[in-house]
Amino acid sequence: VPTANSYPAIVADMLSGAIACIGFTWIASPACTELEVAMLDWLGKMLELPSEFLACSGGKGGGVIQGTASEATLVALLGAKAKKLKEVKAEHPEWDDHTILGKLVGYASAQAHSSVERAGLLGGVKLRSVPADEHNRLRGDALEKAIKQDLADGLIPFYAVVTLGTTNSCAFDRLDECGPVANKHNVWVHVDAAYAGSAFICPEYRHHMKGIETADSFNFNPL
Fold it and tell me: Which cofactors are required for activity (predicted)?
């Protein structure tokens, strides 16, 4: 996202470029990896994300830097896909991967960013566009209707994208409604806050995050 840069950010970028650290694995650069974990915990605490999102919680949570928000949406989809594939194979061992993947279906608002649709194409799964309300928000009742219809058609709902700050109109999907619906149907909830997520550093805007405890993954672009 184009934005002004602070002096510390410019210096940090110069240092990063000069060091030219290859940090794609812990063994390649332990210091880089540990710093990434610590820094993303700082960001999570600034946003007051639930402790489950933080590496310091002692659980399985923690952040990772992606190249773009589009990449983060794809990574979340692939994680949700792998999780659901494992669950369904345990329940139906006679089904092969191709059969299961053909049944998987994800959901996003009709106002979601184009990268969500692209993630579905790259992930090789169906993504269903759910109509938004008159304020361009995805609502819980619309999501539940779509999920129930697909279940009746023999499909397997596995992934739902809730956008907090659409690029079209900065609309905020009702996470407090969609999250519980998805949780009830064992659907992975990914929160795409790329456009407006930095605003949640300010306490007066955090009401837009209501229901964040129902999410499985969260991405935003720190500005």
Answer: pyridoxal 5'-phosphate
